Amino acid sequence: MIRRQHTRPIHLLTVGLLAATVACGDSEGGVESIKVGAIFDLTGPTADVGTDYADGMRGYADWVNMQGGIAGRPIDLIYQDYAYQIDRAEQLYSQFVSEGVVVFMGWGTGDTEALRLRVIEDEIPFSSASLSHVLGDPADAPYNFLVAPTYTDQFRIALDWIAANHGEETPVVALMHNASPFGLSPSRHGGVEYAEAVGVDLTLYEMPRAAVDYTAELSRIRQTGAQYVVFQNTSGPAAVAVQNASSLGLDLTFICLNWCANRQLVDLAGEVAEGVMGTIPYAPLNVDVPGTRVIRDYLTGKGETIEGKTNAYTQAWWTFAVFAEAIGQVLVAGQELTGANIKSALETFTDLDMGGVTVPISFTPDDHLGAKGLRLFRVEDGEWVPFTEFIQAPMVP
Question: Read out DSSP for 223-245?
Fold first, then answer.
């Protein structure tokens, strides 16, 4: 069943953009809604993080509508669970475009890359939870926009930190990755070459899907003399691997990229999560910055707390916010709300303030990698806490 999130408009603004009332076509109360399509993984292999991301998307749409919509028009968020199935993603995309969505919010790397050519043909600005590096190049993906550092940039930041802090000997690093395009993205799109350039001995280890134990992979990693393990996976498999490593008595530094550096990893791994590091583009809700306060205030107003919510909630909320800002600029300028106009508005963003949850966002017609920096975090006393200031991703050598 297709679910919609749609409330009547009130009067106000979104992400700092003053929303003037705009005359619109007929819809609810004589005001036309803004249709945004989305697919979520609520029951598939990445539902452990997908559910919280979906909640953040829905929460942002609800919050905007509570403020009066965008330029007086409510968001009509049309979404469905696609269970991480590429063919289902393609089907839902076609359905939602036929219903008039002007922006699309995707999820996985495989389906986002599969839809790349279709969003060009349909002129639908597209963002997803996938941070595959190739999706930030307008020459290949002119309607895709990344609002967080790519997996490759996150991996480079991690490798840079390792190279700078290891000492004189060559650091040996294992990349344990999901068995999917998502899992291979940081290594395939420049990570392997960067490791070689900074003097890191890197080996890749696939984490089989549905595995409940990674002792065999970790035993092979021990034989290589690795000192570091970087995870490109979701929190569930990474937590199992950290527990397995503890049982084997391995003394390793673990670094999670985006999708396992979250509250769920700590809850699942327990005490052995202490000291795990993470490349976290969007601040967890326990970090006090303006961009997390607005979310906490919204949740409080709904009778909810941040308990159980992860930084995936923050990432989804502020990803949607960037596109809402572009939609608002188009409407306030009196332009027709088309994908092409929204794309053009996005490409004017320079240092868009993200409320301190991440680095400011910039896009140009030649660069859709909106964010190129993040903070490293570390688990201390059961909480992810900032371990560094914001670090810019290194330039490709």
Answer: HHT--EEEEES-HHHHHHHHHHH
- Give the integer Cα–Cα distance in Å for 232 and 178: 6
Alpha helices in 181-310, H assignment, sequence order: 181-186, 192-197, 215-224, 235-247, 263-269, 290-301
Report CA torsion sign: 231, 235, 241, 246: positive
What CA–CA distance (Å, rounded) separates 33 from 7? 9
Kind of pairing between the strands at 75-81 and 34-40 = parallel
DSSP state of 207: E
What angle do the packed helices 47-66 and 290-301 form, to 10 degrees?
80
Q: Provide the token pair at 95.
A: 């359905």
Quick one: average pLDDT of 58-66?
A: 98
- How far does Cα 251 stand from its chain's mean position? 30
Q: Say how far apart CA 138 and CA 134 lie, in whole Å.
A: 9
- Dihedral (Cα; 393, 142, 58, 186), 10-degree rounding: -40
Q: What is the distance between the alpha carbons of residues 32 and 40, in angstroms, rounded to a whole number?
A: 25
* pTM for this entry: 0.88
Cβ neighbours for 167, distance < 8 A, ≥ 6 positions apart: none
Q: How far apart are CA 305 and CA 203, in angstroms?
A: 41
E runs forming strands in 6-74: 13-14, 17-18, 34-40
* Tens digits of residue pLDDT in 177-207: 999 989 999 998 889 999 999 999 999 999 9
